[in-house]
Amino acid sequence: MKVYKNKINVIFLDLFGVLIGSDNSEIINYTMADTHLSINEVKSLLFGEECMKLARNEISFDMFYQYLSKKLDIRKDQFKKDEFVRIWSNMKFGILPINKYLLSLSKIYDLYILTNTTIKHVEQLKNKFTFISKFTGIITSDIAQSYKPDKVFFKYACKFANTQPQNVVFIDDTYENVKTAQNLNMLTHQYTNSGKLDNFIAKIL
Fold it and tell me: Which CATH number covers residue 110?
């Protein structure tokens, strides 16, 4: 039987950018160079829903680039497609640092994946990332019929996990998602680097 700490009984973890992902510092720095947007705004554009569509092969890379060009409002001579493609292609995709804590966390808390992709996409990822199958549950956009950062998504997730927001830890790399969770009274952490993550995990283990 699990002994919950500080009334927390569930941890919600983002999939892309927290559990699996890549070193995105170079692509963020390149994209930010000639825009007035903040790093959180740039990350939301680069790795938001359009990125999920790209991952699911629902849009082409050219469509993704055109979307970014329009949203970022950067001249093409500054936001060069060839250079963007080169940096994007060189990002090494794999398991991120939080995975080393999953076994220890699972002994204390029920762990759920919260993701804006589809259950079909997650099922495909299970073949490569077998740890996904070890989670208590997976809540996707098509199951919840909504997307993060919509509070509807988080309320559905709490109902799905049979818990209350004040009994939840939420870890995500996107500011808007973390902000909504905070407003719902969840204990949150925005993943930006492994050092800060280590300090946060130490507090809940």
Answer: 3.40.50.1000
Report angle CA 166, 48, 184 to the nearest 5 degrees.
15
pLDDT at 11: 98
Q: How do beta strands 93-95 and 168-172 pair?
A: unpaired
| Dihedral of the alpha carbons of 115, 120, 121, 123, in degrees to the nearest 10 | 90
Domain presence at residue 1: no
Residue 132: alpha-carbon gap to chain centroid? 14
Q: Does residue 149 belong to any structural domain of this protein?
A: yes
CA distance 178 to 196: 15
Residues 80 and 112 in one domain: no
Non-local CB neighbours of 116 within 8 Å, separated by 6+ positions: 48, 49, 52, 140, 141, 147, 148
User: Does 108 score more than 70 pLDDT?
Assistant: yes
Is-above-0.85 flag for pTM? no
Residue 6 has a pLDDT of 64
